Amino acid sequence: MPLTPVSDGTNYTSRHLGPSRSETEEMLRTVGYGSLDELLDAALPSSIRQQKAPELPEALPEHEAQERLRELAKKNVVLKSYYGQGFSDTLTPAVIRRGVLEDAGWYTAYTPYQPEISQGRLEALLNFQTMIQELTGLPISNASLLDEASATAEAIGLMSRAVKKGRRVLLDERLHPQVLAVAAERARAVELEVEITDLTAGVVGEDLVGVVIAYPGTEGDLKDPSSVIEEIHSRGGLATVVADPLALLLVSSPGSLGADVVVGSSQRFGVPLFYGGPHAAYIAVTEKLKRQIPGRIVGVSKDAEERPAYRLSLQTREQHIRRERATSNICTAQALLAVVASMYAVYHGPEGLKRIARRIHAHAVRFAASVDNVRHESFFDAVTVEVPGKAQAIVDSAAEAGYLLRAIDADTVGVSFGESATDADVEKLAELFGTSAVEPTDEQRIPDALVRQDAPLSHSIFTSVNSETQMMRYIRQLGDKDLALDRTMIPLGSCTMKLNPTAGLETISWPEFANIHPFAPDSQTAGWRELIAELEGWLAELTGYDTVSVQPNAGSQGELAGLLAIRRYHLAQGEGERNICFIPASAHGTNAASAVLAHLKVVVVATADDGSIDLEDLDEKIEKHGNELAAIMITYPSTHGVFEDSVREVCEKVHAAGGQVYIDGANMNAMSGLAKPGEFGGDVSHLNLHKTFTIPHGGGGPGVGPVAVAKHLAPYLPADPLATDSNAGVPVASTRYGSAGVLQIPWAYLAMTGTDGQANATAHAILGANYLAKRLEDDFPVLYTGKSGLVGHECILDLRELTDASQVTAADVCKRLVDFGFHAPTLAFPVAGTLMVEPTESEDLGELERFVEAMKTIRAEIQEIIDGKVDYEDSVIRHAPYTMQSVTADEWNHSFSRTQAAWPTNSLKSSYKYFPPVRRIDEAYGDRNLVCSCPPPEAFDLTTDTDEKLS
Fold it and tell me: Residues annotated as region Disordered (predicted)?
C-alpha cells in the first residue's frame, strides 16, 4: 500500500519527521529513487512486508492526544498513599522536577559511553554512588539497577558466583511479597534451591550460597540482622540485606552489621510512585566483591591535562561485551531516576534527610501509640495493626476518607508513613481505627542497638547546596557539560536516539498518573489500566503477535521474559531437554546474556560474508542439536544494518526442528508500520520502547521492554508478582506493569502518528540511513549492504583500512567528532574498527549535512597523515577533543592551530559551539586506580599531583 504523504506542519508526524517534503525529495534523488515507496520496495524483501497495515486509531493532534490522556488520568483515584510494601509517598522538589525530570538536556542524554561529553550526568551518578556507599556502609556501589525485586535477584546471582560450591539460598519471609516472587523465580531459573524461611529461628542446612534479609521487614518490623549474618558467614555463605535507604539515616548501616551486599530502591528519594516505576534500585558490595557487581560503575580517572574526569569503570563488566560468559543481562538501568534521587540528597543534605526521616518516624510512633494491637514494637515508618476480621472494612472506610492502606490479610492492616504525612493525617488515621490520637512525644521505636552512631553523607557535595538558587545553578552547571539530543544529533547505531514527544513526556508528572501506588486496587486505577490495555493492543497490531505484556522494565528484561516463556512452553510440552539457544555471531550481546539467565546453553551460528546468517552453518547446528533446540534469537534487521532475504527460511528451519523463533525487536524502527515479525516467522519478540517508541534514554534508563508473543506462548507471559492464582509465567519486575509511569510517552507517540505516521517514520529512518551511507561511501566504505546495495535504518562505516594506513582509530574519530559538536556513532559494534551510524527519522537534512561535513573534514585530516604531511602523534585527531580552556591558554604546544582544533569548519564559527569540559580521558588509569565515590574538592586543585589527590 503506497505511503500517504505527510503534510508539512499540519500534524504531529510532520513535526516528528526531521526532513521537510522538499528535503525528502532531495534525499531520495541522492540515493537514486523517485519516491519513498520505490526505496522501500528496493530495501525491504517482499517476503517480510506485512499482509495488511496495522489497525491503529486515526492519528490525533497533540492537543487532542493530551485531552484523551487527561480523560484517562481523571479515571484514576488519587489517595494519600499509606500502603508501603516497598513504595512510599515522597515529595519531588519542584526545582528537581523541572530541572531534571522534565528537562530535555537530562532526559534525552545517552548512556555515558563517551565520557568527555557526559561529565555532568557522570558526576550526578557518582553522587548517587557516594550516597549509597555512605548510607549502606559499604565501599562499592553501582550507578543503579532496575527495581528492588530484580536487584535482589542480581544479588543472589552475585552470591552464587562468589560462593561457587553452594546451591541453596535462604530468603527471609519478611521480604516484600513481590521481592520474594521475582527473586525466587529468577534463582530457580538458574537451578538454585530456594527456601523462604523465618530467619529469626536461625540458619538451617548446608550447601548455602547465602541469605537475603529484610531490613526493615514488609510489616515494618525492625530486627537486628547481625546474628544471622554471623551465622551464614560461619557456614561459608554471604549475606545480602534489602534496606530502605531513608531508614538508614536513623538505623545502623548494614555494612557496619557485617553485610556483604546491600540492595534496595531509592524511590523515596524524591521519585514519584509512578504506578510502580521507573525507580532506581541500588546495589552496594564489599571490596572483595567489586568485580562481581552487575551493571555500571562510575569511576574517577584523569584527562590528558591531568584533571580529574569521570568515566564508566571496569567496562568489561558490561554484559553485552561478555555475551555467553555473562553473569547478568543488565544493559541499561535507571540513570535518570538515580540522578533525581542523588539531586534529592544534594538538595536536602544530611540534616534535611534526617529531619524527613525523623518526622516520618515520629508520625508512625504517634500512630502506634494511639491504636491497640500493634504487632511489632520496633519499626521505622510502617505500623502493622491486628484487627481480627475487620481489615477490609477499615481499608474501605479509609479509601472513602482519602487514604490508601494495606490489607495484609483479613485480620491485619499496614499503615506506612511517607514524606507528606501530617499530624492531621495521624489524627484521621487513628479515628479510622476507632480511637483518638495521643499527643506527639519524643519516643522512638528504633532499638538502641540499631540507632545509627556515625554521620552518613559526609562528603561536601551533600552540604554545599543551601538554597534553591544554588540547586538550580548546580543542575544547570552539570547539564551544560553534557551533549544530549537537545543540542545535536546522536547518530548511535542500534540505539535509535530520536525525538521524544513533549506532549507525552509532560504528562508523566501529572498527579493523577504519578501519584498512584502500584498495588492500589483496580477500582482506583481504571485510567491507568485502560491506557496500558490500549498501548498493549497497538503494539500487538504493529508486531503481528497475539498478546503483549509491558511488565519488563528494560529491553534486557524483555529478552529474559521471552526466553523464560519459551523455556516454560517446552517444559509444558514435556520437552525439557530443549535447552539450547542458537544466537548468530552478529547478535546483540544481551541476547546471549539473557539466554544464560534463562538457563539455556548458547550455541553461536556463524555469519556469512554479507552479514546474514550462514545457512550452511545453521543446517549443521540443527543437525547436531535439533532435538535439544529450544530457540534461535534473531535481530532483524540484522545488527549489521541490513534486511536479510533469508529470514523466513531461517524461521522455517528452526520450526521444523521443533524450536521457537525469538526476533529481537531492538531494530523495530526499521519495520514499524511496514513489517510484522509475528507474521514472517517470529513466536516472540521484545520491543525497546526507549528506542522505536520514543521513551527517552535519560542517560541510560528508563527503559521499557515489552514482550510480545504468539497465542501458544501467551500463558507464559510474565505473571503479576502478587498473583495468588497459578500462572505459568514468571514475574520479572516488582509490579504487574513494570515501569508504567512512562507509558504515556509511547501511548502519545502512537496516538499522534497512527498507521500512516508509523509507516512514514520508518520510511524516513531508512531514507536517512541510506542518505548518509551514499554521502559518505567514498570516504568511509559501508561494510554491509543488502538488497539493491541498500542498508536498513543504520549503516556500518568501515575504518579498518584507514587505521592501517594512518594509525587513526575509530575511537580517535569518535573523540574528534566532539569538536564538531556531535555524539559519536556506535563504536566497534558489531565489528571492531567500525562505526555504526543511525540518523533516525527525526533529523533534518541540514543536521545530516552537518554530520557529513564533520566526517569529510575528519577524513581529510586522516589523509594528511596518510600523505605524510602530519605525524599521527602530533595530529589534531590524536589529541582531540579540545576544551575551551586548552584553546585559550597562554601556552599552545601543537603544530596545528587553535582554530583547526576548535573550529575546524566555518559553520562552527557562525553557530553555537560546544566545548567539552575535559580533554581525552585516560581509560586505563581509571581501571588501575578504581575510585568510585566523589573525590574530595582538593582533587580539582591543579597544583597537586593527580595520583596523590585521587588516591
Answer: 1-23
Residue 524 CA: distances (Å) to CA of 88, 178, 520: 17, 20, 6
Three-class DSSP category at 94: helix
223 domain residue, yes or no? yes
Written as nine digits, the cell of 312 is 564508566
DSSP 687-729: B-TTTTT----TTT------EEE-GGGGGGSPPPTT--S--SS
pLDDT tens profile 310-367? 999 865 445 555 666 666 777 778 999 999 999 999 999 999 999 999 999 999 999 9
Q: Could you tell me if residue 415 is inside a domain?
A: no
Residues 537 and 671 in one domain: yes
CA distances from 660 to 645, 649, 719 (A): 19, 14, 21
CA 158 to chain centre: 20
H or E element that contains 793: none
> Is the residue at 806 inside a domain?
yes
Residue ending a domain, choose from 291, 309, 343? 343
The Cα–Cα gap between 635 and 640 comes to 9
Domain of 672 in residue numbering reads as 54-58+525-740
CA distance 380 to 242: 14
Asked if the structure places residue 833 within a domain, the reply is yes
Model pLDDT for residues 704-738, shown as the tens digit of each residue: 999 999 999 999 999 999 987 766 799 999 999 99
Dihedrals φ, ψ of 30, to 5°?
-65, -40
Using CA of residue 780, residue 782, residue 788, residue 794, what is the dihedral sign? negative
Task: Assess whether 726 and 838 both reside in one domain.
Answer: no
- The counts of H helices and E strands in the chain are 31, 24
pTM: 0.96
How many domains does the structure of the chain reveal?
A: 3
Distance CA 655, CA 436 (A): 68
Choose among 842, 671, 847: nearest CA to 12: 842
**Following DSSP, what letter does each residue of 856-900 receive, concatenated?**
HHHHHHHHHHHTTSS-GGGSTTTT----HHHHHSS----SS-HHH
Q: CATH no. for residue 143?
A: 3.40.640.10
